[in-house]
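Supplementary Methods. Inverse-folding protocol.

Structures were first reduced to a discrete structure-token string of length 289. This string, shown here, constituted the complete conditioning input.
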């Protein structure tokens, strides 16, 4: 574990390195979702399996989340992509990386790949979408609703969450409410130039998109396939937005297969991420912390 100051905000970073791996291995960077999420959602699901398969795994808490710093302002979407680029610089990761983004983490991944295509080898997103005008309206509505509930009816809202989702989720919701109530995230996050279809058509990076088949976001699948020249979409039956947590084995296999297809030619990544790598990953998932 490390706290790394990148763009003036200390970021909580975890790194899992495969034992005995030689230089030149593939690096995967895991980006979590918004408000109630943190790097813990990866640490307790697929991160150990990725390392067991031979990947150099980097995961971190977004600004305002988890153990990272929580400034009063500075929550425009561009700040989150700035954090990612600055972190890669500070860690001195030399080549293009594979980005894996859950929900909002996928939105950050799309934004970074559009800005720095030279630094991205592939993208895998889970229940996510680019920062289009539609995304901005949806997120603005979510943040307004959270701010209202945690300002006007906080106690009632938290009691309902504890009763229906458990006390741990209620604690996460309380922290998310404070983030929305006490910082400028609701005012700043969606104030950005929307990603257009023309911009997405220029994205040559390989993109894997995994959706719950019962999620509203699965409607994105044919739209993304029509725009992105190198993409694949996967629908996981019986799941909604929480695919990463509820079906980690499926997410693990899909992402490892995608990274193996797009590993650096001649490097160790592709060989390690074949069937043997996926078998090692499956064993690691069973024994995950």
């Amino acid at each position: 574990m490390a706290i790394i100051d990148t763009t003036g905000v200390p970021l909580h970073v975890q790194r899992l390195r495969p034992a005995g791996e030689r230089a030149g291995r593939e690096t995967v960077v895991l980006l979590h979702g918004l408000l109630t999420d943190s790097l813990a959602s990866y640490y307790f699901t697929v991160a150990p399996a990725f390392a067991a398969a031979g990947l150099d795994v980097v995961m971190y808490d977004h600004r305002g989340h988890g153990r990272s710093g929580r400034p009063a302002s500075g929550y425009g979407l561009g700040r989150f992509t700035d954090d990612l680029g600055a972190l890669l610089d500070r860690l001195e990761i030399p080549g293009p990386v594979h980005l894996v983004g859950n929900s909002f983490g996928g939105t950050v991944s799309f934004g970074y790949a559009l800005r720095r295509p030279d630094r991205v080898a592939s993208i895998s997103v889970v229940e996510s979408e680019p920062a289009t005008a539609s995304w901005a309206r949806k997120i603005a509505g979510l943040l307004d609703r959270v701010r209202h509930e945690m300002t006007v009816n906080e106690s009632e809202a938290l009691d309902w969450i504890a009763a229906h989702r458990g006390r741990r989720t209620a604690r996460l919701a309380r922290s998310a409410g404070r983030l929305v109530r006490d910082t400028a995230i609701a005012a700043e996050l969606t104030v950005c130039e929307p990603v257009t279809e023309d911009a997405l058509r220029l994205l040559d990076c390989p993109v894997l998109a995994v959706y719950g088949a019962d999620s509203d976001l699965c409607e994105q699948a044919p739209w993304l396939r029509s725009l992105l020249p190198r993409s694949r979409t996967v629908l996981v039956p019986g799941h909604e937005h929480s695919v990463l947590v509820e079906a980690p084995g499926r997410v693990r296999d899909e992402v490892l297969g995608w990274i193996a297809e797009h590993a650096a030619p001649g490097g160790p990544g592709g060989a390690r991420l074949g069937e043997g790598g996926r078998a090692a990953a499956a064993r690691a998932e069973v024994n995950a912390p």
